[in-house]
Amino acid sequence: MILSDRDIREAVLKGEIFIEPFRKENLTPNGYDLTVKEIYVDGTTKEEAKIKPMTWFAISTEEYIRLKNVTAQLWLRSSYARKGLLSSFGKVDAGFEGCLTIACFNTYQDMEIKRGDRICQIVFEKMVSRPSKYYEGKYRGQKGVKLE
Predict the structure, then answer these.
(1) Is residue 70 part of a domain?
(2) What is the extent of the structural domain holding 41?
(3) For residue 142, what pLDDT is reported?
(4) Three-state secondary-structure class, residue 21
(5) Is 47 left (phi over 0), alpha (psi -120 to 50) or beta?
(6) How many domains, in total, are found in the chain?
(7) Residues in the chain, pLDDT under 70
(8) What is the pLDDT of residues 36-64, one digit of tens each?
(9) CATH number at residue 54
(10) How many Å from the N-terminal Cα to the C-terminal Cα in the chain?
């Protein structure tokens, strides 16, 4: 079951979802827009970058997320897809907490990306039952771009 904006607000109040900073204007009918904190491109980390075509880069979200009995999917905002951006997204496991690192590839034209840009949407899903084990992997608690 995908959570609506009302469900997300309720889950935040119950402590099932934690988003910091939380901006009500980033809520969408069925998700929440995540923003860029930093961009890793050409071996350096920046708050603003001009990404050339055929360039791989990674971004870290500004938002620190914590999920309890909820899981999530990430989706690229269509405005970036229309500019030729491709991205690889995974499932965000129940028990995950931290900022998210997102790998991207610019396919088409020069693209400006800066801190605060809304780049992707996180779509939360309610789990039917509590998991027997929560996520405890190496990315738990991460802040900033983490490549390995």
Answers:
(1) yes
(2) 5-126
(3) 83
(4) coil
(5) alpha
(6) 1
(7) none
(8) 999 999 999 999 999 999 999 999 999 99
(9) 2.70.40.10
(10) 32
